[in-house]
Every structure is written in structure tokens, then in C-alpha cells.
Amino acid sequence: MDRRQVLKIGTAAALLTGSKLSIAQRAEETTDVVVVGSGGSGLTAAITAFDAGAKVIVLEKMPITGGNSQLSAGGMNAANTVIQKQKNIEDNWEIMFQDTMKGGKEINNPQLVEILAKNSSASIDFLLSIGGDMTDVGRMAGASVNRCHRPAGGEAVGHNLIHTLRQNAIKRNMDVRTGSRAIKLLVEGGKIVGVEVQDRHGRKYNIKSSAVVLASGGFSANLERVTKYRPEYAGFSSTNQPGATGDGLDLAAAVGAKLRDMEQIQIHPTQAAGSKILITEAVRGNGAIMINREGKRFVNELTTRDAASAAVLKQTGGTAFLVFDQNIRKSLKQIEGYYHLELCKEGATPQELAKVCGITDGDALAETIKKYNEYQEAKKDEEFGRADMPRPIKEANFIAIEIRPGIHYTMGGVVFDTQTRVLNESNQPIHGLYGAGEVTGGVHGANRLGGNSISETITFGRIAGAQAAAYAKANKKA
Ligand SMILES: Cc1cc2nc3c(=O)[nH]c(=O)nc-3n(C[C@H](O)[C@H](O)[C@H](O)COP(=O)(O)OP(=O)(O)OC[C@H]3O[C@@H](n4cnc5c(N)ncnc54)[C@H](O)[C@@H]3O)c2cc1C
Questions:
Q1: pLDDT beyond 70 at 1
Q2: Which ligand 1 atom is the nearest neighbour of the CA of 217?
């Protein structure tokens, strides 16, 4: 069996199971495009470049593909989609643009936000066309329209997304290498010409390529890096997979890439207390309220993540409770997963629920739920101005999950342009270097809206793959 066959078999195994790839000493290799990272943006870029005729190698430092994208839960924002039309939801890219700019406190790069919003519908079409399921639509905080797409029944988006992309990579017999860390970008004559790689055994080798797509994700799992920019987050835990360390930022900075918004680090308000599990915003989107230890609401549950997190941190003990009912449970399949992980407490009455989960005033909780149901019926939240209250909280048993804020997303990253070209300190493209996904900065400004990241990974992944393939082709001819 030649080395290429060993690689292909190893590749399929890596994609499916988390790698059995074992390769003897490598000589220098040559390809058209190297993609660093195998999350949503990396696999999308790789498939797009491959379909445009490029020879592609994907590098993933972890033992399995998928990155944070695989963990994503709530869904993918997109405006004016075929699915929204089927459900008579009126939306358009301009509203998504405005919501995203407002959520990002207007420091986002508007040109990139326009690309995100305008292409989001086509990105849903892309996923549907390759076998994905995006047929359920809900709402995430900061959105003024129901535009968060996810699999039927409100299943977590990440599993379906990454499974779909993996299957497509396998179908194309693509070269995807797990346990393979990009440690250096190779430069010749001012152009990126490849990557130095360290394999799982510590051996180093070079891959020469015409273009490199950096899709290596954010750095929320790297507390040292997080606290360098935000010392006040010392001691926080993270919702991210352990590979989200931000080494792609170092690779890019070493070749002169400009970084922006590095101190813009998102804290997610609802990480399950005492665990690393993220409770998706869709639980609130589908109707849950947030209650403090004294049994009272304290914030508009659908405000932006930064505002909701700050409000939770001000409550007794710095934690709070998501409170909902069996009807809301039925509306979102993901909640069964939280039961499976034993994160949900139940009570036949609000008073009983308060007792089992440590809310000190059960009568206050009962009164809070009663009032909320009145607001829900009247479609007007008199206390906190919550705009969307899709369901009342009435059907026993009542349910609570204790939550606290955790480090979730890094808005900052490499500066890139509308063609996904990574820019240097003089805002000029670094030839041959493209970026997509959480490693980039500028799309989300000071605060990312839930559902916008998966949208970003698919849209900018598609652009980066197409651009890198075209650049490689032109470069070959030159
Ligand atoms: C628990 C959770 C839930 C979320 N839910 C949602 C949601 O519902 N909707 C939404 O829009 N967003 C959500 N997000 C955010 C979203 O999932 C991520 O921002 C997005 O998936 C990032 O995609 P990416 O492709 O840029 O990076 P990732 O998916 O993280 O992939 C990057 C990959 O690059 C690899 N890598 C890093 N450095 C190197 C290197 N040097 N060499 C080789 N490989 C490298 C990493 O190991 C990783 O596998 C969620 C995040 C988390 C953690």
C-alpha cells in the first residue's frame, strides 16, 4: 500500500472516529491549499476549495475534527431563508445587519457584517444542499426576528453541522489530518507559501502550498491569554473545547498580521453552575426566565450576553436559575440532554422547586411566575421589557437549572477583508493568507449575537475556500 492510500484510510478513520492516522517520516509535500482547523469554517472552506478544483489538506491539532463548532447548540442566524418563508417569517438582510451592528455596539466592520447578513440565506441553502438539517427556526438574544436555524425539533446545531461536513469530506476522499498542529506559516518573497506542521509524535515537516486558510478558532479555553486582555476574568471557567487556545493568532502575528478587538471577550450568562456545560440561549429563546436566589427576575432574559452576564454576576453568589416548564421542555430537544447530564431540578409547585434547588423564597418564585404569565398573556413585560415571550410557564413539573457566566467567545482576531484576505499592519493583504471564523476579528464588534458565529463560519468559510482556490489557480499559472 503506498503512502497516499495509508493517508486516505487514515483520513476517513480520523473523520469518523478521531484518527488512527499514523504516518512515517514525511518529506516535504506540495498542495494548493492548506486549511488550518477543522471546525465549521475550516471544513466549509476545505470543501469549497476542493469543489473549485483545488488540492486541499486540512490540519487539525486535536485528536478529533469539529472544534467548538461541534459543541454549538442554539443554531445559525440567517435572514430571508427558504425555511423562514415556509414558516411565514418576514425577515431581510438589513434587519439582520442592524441587529448585528447594535449587538456589537457599532464597533463591528460594517462591510463584513453586510457580507454576513447578505450571504446568510445562501449559506443555509449550501448546508441544505449538502445534507444538513436547518428546518427548525427560533430566536436568540438580540435578534428582532426569529432567524436562528437548527435541526428539526430544536436539536443542537453543532452535531448535525459537523456530521454533515465530515460526511462530505469523506465522500470527496479529502485529506484531513488530526493530531497535526500548524506551528509556523512559511513565507517566501513576502508571500505565504505553506505551513510547518508538528504531527502527533512530535515530528515536524513542511507542506508547501499556494494558499493557507486560517480557521483555527478563538482562545476562550486559554485562561492565560484571556486574562492578559481581561485580568478581571481570572478564575472563570470556559465553555470551549480545550483546543481553543488561539495559537492561530500567534501564527498570523508572526507573519505581520494585524489583530483587532482582542480585549472583546464574551462571557456567556448560562453555563451550568459547577460544570463546563453551556445551557443554550435557545432555552430562554423558547420561554425560560432567569430567577435569582431570592426567587425574583432581575433582567430581560433576551438582552445581549454581556448585559445578562453582568446582571447574573450581581446576584447573590454570582449565580442564577433558568426556570421553565414541561411545555418549554417539549419545545426543545436539547433540554433532554441537560436531563441526561442531571442538571435539571424539578418541583410540582414553584415552592417545591425552590426547596430542591436552594431558592430561598418559594412564595416569591410563585409570585414571579404568576406575574410573568400575565405579561406573557398580555404580550407586554411591564418589568423588564422582554419583547418575545413565546410560552407561559404553567405546566408542572416546574424545572430549574442553576447557571453562572463562563468565558465563551473571543470577538477579536486577525484583521481581514471582504474577500477574507488577512491584512497586515498597513491594512494590505498578506498574499496567500486567508481567514475565516472565530480566529478573525471585526464581524461581531464588542459583542457577538447568539447564532451569528455558526453563520459566520459557513459564510466566510465558503468565501475563504473559493478565494484560496482561485488564488492558488492563478498562482500556478503565474
Ligand atoms: C458550547 C458552545 C456552544 C455554542 N453555540 C453556538 C450557537 O448555537 N450558535 C453560534 O452561532 N455559535 C455558537 N458557539 C460559537 C461557535 O460554535 C464557534 O464560535 C464556532 O464554531 C467557531 O468555528 P471555527 O471554525 O472558527 O472554530 P472551531 O470550530 O473552534 O475550529 C477551530 C479548530 O482549529 C483547531 N486548531 C487550533 N489551532 C490549530 C493549529 N495550530 N493547528 C491545527 N489545528 C488548530 C482547533 O483545535 C479547532 O478544532 C458555541 C460555542 C460553544 C463553545
A1: no
A2: 27
In CATH, what class is 1-264+411-478?
Answer: alpha beta
Q: Which residues contact ligand 1 via a Cβ below 6 A? A: 36-42, 59-62, 67-69, 71-76, 157, 181-182, 215-217, 239-240, 243-244, 247-248, 278, 280, 409, 437-439, 450-454, 457
Distance 40 CA to ligand 1 centre (A): 7
Kindly provide the b/e burial profile for residues 368-399, where b requires at least 16 CB atoms within 10 angstroms of the residue's own CB: bbeebbebbeeeebeebebebbebbbeeeebb
**In degrees rounded to 5, what are phi and psi of residue 477?**
-70, -35
pLDDT digits (tens, 9 = 90+) for 423-436: 999 999 999 999 99
E strand spans, 121-234: 136-138, 148-150, 175-177, 181-188, 191-198, 204-214
Ligand 1 centroid from CA 284, angstroms: 22
Q: In this structure, how many other beta carbons lie within 10 angstroms of the beta carbon of residue 429? A: 16
Please report which helix (H) or strand (E) contains residue 471, including its range: helix 452-477
Nearest-5° angle of CA 47, CA 68, CA 165?
25
Tell me the CA–centroid distance for residue 429 and ligand 1, in Å. Answer: 24
State how far the Cα of 92 lies from the Cα of 7, in Å rounded to an integer: 45
The reported pLDDT for the residue numbered 27 is: 66
Instruction: Give the count of beta carbons closer than 10 Å to the beta carbon of residue 53.
Output: 11
| Atom 3 of ligand 1: nearest residue by CA position | 72
Three cell numbers written together for 467: 478565494
| Ligand 1 center from residue 397 Cα (angstroms) | 35
| Residue type (1 letter), 474 | A
Element (H, E) at 122: helix 110-129
Largest CA distance in the chain: 76
Model confidence, pTM = 0.89
How far is 400 from 283, CA to CA, in rounded Å?
11
- d(CA 25, CA 411) in angstroms, rounded, equals 38
* CATH hierarchy code of domain 266-407: 3.90.700.10
Same fold for the pair 1-264+411-478 and 266-407: no
Going 162 to 165 to 168 to 172, the CA torsion angle's sign is negative
Distance CA 94, CA 363 (A): 45
Domain coordinates in residue numbering, the chain: 1-264+411-478, 266-407
Q: pLDDT digit string (tens) for 436-464?
A: 999 999 999 999 999 999 999 999 999 99
Outline where 33-75 has alpha helix (H): 40-51
- Rounded to whole angstroms, how far apart are CA atoms 219 and 254? 17
The answer to whether 416 touches 440, Cβ cutoff 8 Å, is: yes
Name the residue of 47, 61, 69, 434 whose CB sits within 8 Å of the most ligand 1 atoms, as the mutation to test its pocket: 69
Minimum-distance ligand 1 atom for the alpha carbon of 62: 47
